[in-house]
């Protein structure tokens, strides 16, 4: 089974031999891929919605993996018992929802070895939540697919060193790696924000001045991040 580039990046952070709970599994492609490639030994494919879960069941049956992948309707981690899985995947959902799932499922994540997360928004808040709640971000990756950029992170239990605002926003591990895809993203964001700043120069409204200040702060963080590549 072929995964999208985004989902391959998620799968690439899963430790071999894992027992996986894929939260918000949608079509069930991720657990099927992890089992068929030998990365995971067993998996739970869960989703809050019946429709996607029905599709996942069909795909799992067709793949011949029904004996190794269990489907389960679940609101986040609520139908997952502590100790059932050592790895949680949450990919393709908003950062606020990722944080809610983690916050509501502390009893479950407390028994897990790793969290593989690919939030679609509010990535800074997700990183901040993790390092503020007993997790350390051990690995990160980033891919571009169809003009969109997707950061992925692996979190394990442990304490983290302090993060700067730029590291929270763009990823300490990605910056340490001088990740080429992150550099592409930073350069694109710099161009976009410089264009906005130029357009705002001609306006005297209070809101425009406030927005100009916000843009200038964002550009300073981008320059700080780009400094890691020099």
Automatic annotation (TrEMBL):
Lineage top rank: taxon: Bacteria
The UniProt record lists the keyword Nucleus: no
MF (Gene Ontology): tRNA (adenine(22)-N1)-methyltransferase activity
GO biological process: methylation
Keywords associated with the record: Methyltransferase, Transferase
InterPro entries: SAM-dependent_MTases_sf, TrmK
Name of the featured protein: SAM-dependent methyltransferase
Organism: Extibacter muris
